[in-house]
Amino acid sequence: VAAQNIAANVPNQVLGGFVTDFKGEAVSVTSLPITIATSSDMSGVITSISIVDANGAVVAGPVDEAATCTTSCTVTFTDTITFPVGRKIYTIKGRIPAGATTDSTVIVSTNPSGWSGVTGQTSGNTISLSQTNFAMNTMTIKSATLKVALSTSPASQNIVGGGQGVHL
Q1: Are 115 and 29 in contact (CB under 8 A)?
Q2: Is the peptide bond before 33 cis (omega within 30 degrees of 0)?
Q3: Alpha carbon distance 83, 120 (integer Å)
Q4: Residue 41: which region, alpha, beta or left (left: phi > 0; alpha: psi -120 to 50)?
Q5: Residue 156 DSSP symbol
Q6: pLDDT digits (tens, 9 = 90+) for 37-64
Q7: Fewer CB near the last or first residue (10 Å), C or N of the chain?
């Protein structure tokens, strides 16, 4: 999932993304923690954090931060997530609080070797994941801006109420 600009107080903003590529059998995970690092105080909690698959279906969550994320916090998904065989892309989404500062950044990371309850769906065996901690792409919070200025075009005119195709 590419780095991008995200908005505050809007649901389903991209916070990060990762790829899985399991071979042989589907794998279930019962606890998947993520760490959210921010460049400044969010002035509120990040809410409705979910993991969604490439089709947009929610596979885990939503969960909320337990406390305001001043620079770093951990959120744990305790839903059982079943990752199918093959290369799959997952996106982490959430709602940044309204008080977040413009140009603040959000970086989500996870450590698959720290995921727990990792079990093969066919064999029932416990699976050890060797991937260590990795950070996802940086998301930058941007606020909407609008600039309005007076123009000489179109020229001042009188219009009739109820008219159609009036140039404003």
Answers
A1: yes
A2: no
A3: 10
A4: beta
A5: P
A6: 988 877 778 899 999 999 999 999 899 8
A7: C
